[in-house]
Amino acid sequence: MANGFKEKDEMNVKLPPDLEAFVARKLESGVYRSVEDVIQEGLLLLQARDEFTEQKLADLRKEIAIGLEQAGQGKVRNLDEALIEGIKASGRERRRRNGVNEAHE
After folding, report:
1. What is the pTM of this model?
2. How many Cβ atoms from other residues are within 10 Å of residue 38's Cβ?
3. How far apart are CA 67 and CA 60, in angstroms?
């Protein structure tokens, strides 16, 4: 690796006080048996989030490519007030289904 860390090396990590306290609370809860377990769970969640984000980006890139291809074939529509309102209504419905507050209307 570029930072000189080898897989067999021990890794020591210094956490800020607020994260140390968070880890301590997790240990006190009894859900985790060790600091390593807490850190491992956090890293697994970070890894899952990164993978999810990468998949969402790949999906968006695919949708953009489809849109660009359709635009190149002349398969486009002009935006009018009715279309804009339909898009907004669809987004609001999706947000409502996902439990997201509609603060920006």
Report:
1. 0.63
2. 20
3. 10
Reported as a single tens digit per residue, the pLDDT across 30-68 is 999 999 999 999 999 999 999 999 999 999 999 999 999
- Cα separations (Å) of 33 from 12, 13, 15, 40, 47? 18, 18, 18, 12, 21
Any idea what DSSP says for residue 9? S
Distance of CA 12 to the CA centre of its chain: 27
The angle, 0 to 180 degrees and rounded to 10, between the axes of the packed helices 17-29 and 35-72 is 110
**Pairwise CA distance, residues 45 & 57, whole Å:** 18
Q: Would you kindly state where each structural domain of the chain is located, as residue ranges?
A: 17-97
